[in-house]
Amino acid sequence: MKSILPLTLLLLVVAFENCASNKETIRPGVSKINTGSHLAQIEAIDADLKSSTLSDESRDKLIIKKGKLLLDLGRYEETITTLNQVNQAKANPVQLSEWNLAMGKAYIGKNEYNKAIQFLNQSEKLDKNTNLMERKRLVVQSLVAEREYYPALATLTKTYTKGNQKKDEFYYETAAKTYLKMGFEYKNTGFYQKGLQVANLGLEEFPNNETLKSIQKECLEVLQPEGKL
Asked: Where is the signal peptide (predicted)?
């Protein structure tokens, strides 16, 4: 792969600024919630937790449920504080996997991606089946946010290769975005060519995807002046 020529650097900066201006923040909560309903459920859980007849398992289930409600509300610090009340020593593997997943999401909400990855990986170790794709996607997004591009691409590829998982919009968007970021960071047109290739393949499957169209445009802005196409 050839290094980028000086005349292209200005275009490269412009392309990156366009990308940066549309930078997405990873947010693990649901997009639309009924805040009043969530708050009412939290209040009801708090009342139930005061019962002296609750078993440890029932108590932990309620705490995890409360943590998830707080997570949906974007109250990440409260989520972590709440979830830390779970008795991890007595929780069953599936329940503990669920706990780790919620903790991982909370740390993503706080932009503490390294911690999030640790919890997400532990969640998978405890239960490899439930929420598998959700965990993998969150790990990939966290790796990209930490600028761990090669591990992110390796994890993404492995996730969609293992079990013959059909490549979807998330795959194409994430791979193309990652190559675009690598192109700017490593000052190398080869990554822009890869980003364009992935974006083009994604648009064949999903022609109305605006994210892929944007990435395609940004890659072309860098590559066309050098006649790389």
From this structure: 1-20
